């Protein structure tokens, strides 16, 4: 285990050197003239296990469905959560779930890899242009057209969900500089049954008709906001909005940065968590996978960024979706922002 960790920097350096010369397929100019009906199978390569990174593929999948309505889309990811996230996407055909730890599951890794490189595709596209492992799978894929990046074209957006869409549009629409800047929202395609179940869960916690504020106080690594911040902020939240309910959504580790002082909801079902947030009036958290789940709902979502990650790349986006830099926003200013929006 320790040996593998020590080898990781060397592995990244080796892969970066190996993939530095990988380029888009030379025939991409032909992509704009191909009939959409002739694009029958598409591969998206994003071998990463994080919830947020897999969720951020959904706008690209939606765009591919609009551009190529008869095509089936296969995904290369790590872990098994994409099976859950894209369960209601009819154009998602097959999901290659690479093991999160390839050295510990080498046989499985090789087996899945062989399936990927032995399947023919019309188009293959990188979900993240900087992913070295993604570039390797894209290079090895048996695809007629391969999009690693947008070449020399100045990108429209650096947001993680937008970049592969811009890359696709650039080559698909004859290298026009005025390509559309509209992007679909992140979407799990919750069913009415799932949303109604989320509503019933909310009603089981609160026997009143007051607005519900959902908070998620966890995050990975440096993105996690300290207990003192959360306690100071929620105290001000309670004082400013006394006629509201606060529901803390707990992480899989079942921990709380506010010492479980609010009603709290625990579930390992990602679709159920999303349905609960859908039935709330406001969601607040640091940058994390659950924040992106909230971004997939119609609930106003505020992502709290502390400088550990770039909101221009990872912010929740869409109607009533905001990123707040807490280094520039005091708690009072943040509360005023919420009050001015009249969400509660």
TrEMBL record:
GO terms for cellular component: cytosol. It comes from the Bacteria. Keywords: Glycosyltransferase, Transferase. SUPFAM superfamilies: UDP-Glycosyltransferase/glycogen phosphorylase (SSF53756). This is ADP-heptose:LPS heptosyltransferase. One of its GO terms (molecular function) is ADP-heptose-lipopolysaccharide heptosyltransferase activity. It comes from Mesonia hippocampi. InterPro entries: Glyco_trans_9, LPS_LOS_Heptosyltrfase.
């Amino acid at each position: 285990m320790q040996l593998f960790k020590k080898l990781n920097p060397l592995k990244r350096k080796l892969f970066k050197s190996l993939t530095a010369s990988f380029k888009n397929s030379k025939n991409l100019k032909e992509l704009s003239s191909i009939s959409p009906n002739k694009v029958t199978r598409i591969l998206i390569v994003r071998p990463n296990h994080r919830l947020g990174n897999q969720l951020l593929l959904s706008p690209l999948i939606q765009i591919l469905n609009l551009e190529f309505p008869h095509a089936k889309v296969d995904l290369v990811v790590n872990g098994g959560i994409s099976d859950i996230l894209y369960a209601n996407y009819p154009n998602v055909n097959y999901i290659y779930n690479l093991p999160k730890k390839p050295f510990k599951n080498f046989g499985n890794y090789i087996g899945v890899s062989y399936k990927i490189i032995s399947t023919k595709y019309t188009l293959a596209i990188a979900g993240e242009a900087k992913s070295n492992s993604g570039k390797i799978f894209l290079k090895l894929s048996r695809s007629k057209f391969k999009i690693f990046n947008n070449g020399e074209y100045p990108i429209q957006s650096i947001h993680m969900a937008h970049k592969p869409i811009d890359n696709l549009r650039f080559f698909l629409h004859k290298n026009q500089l005025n390509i559309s800047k509209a992007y679909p929202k992140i979407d799990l395609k919750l069913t009415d049954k799932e949303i109604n179940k989320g509503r019933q869960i909310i009603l089981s916690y609160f026997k009143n008709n007051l607005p519900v504020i959902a908070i998620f106080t966890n995050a990975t690594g440096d993105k996690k906001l300290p207990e003192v911040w959360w306690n100071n902020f929620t105290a001000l939240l309670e004082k400013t909005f006394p006629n509201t309910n606060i529901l803390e959504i707990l992480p899989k580790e079942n921990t709380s940065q506010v010492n479980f002082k609010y009603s709290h909801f625990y579930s390992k079902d990602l679709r159920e968590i999303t349905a609960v947030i859908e039935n709330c009036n406001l969601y607040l958290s640091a940058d994390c996978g659950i924040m992106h789940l909230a971004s997939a709902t119609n609930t106003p979502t505020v992502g709290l960024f502390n400088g550990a990650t770039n909101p221009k790349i990872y912010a929740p986006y869409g109607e009533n979706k905001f990123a707040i830099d807490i280094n520039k926003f005091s708690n009072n200013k943040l509360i005023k922002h919420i009050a001015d929006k009249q969400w509660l």
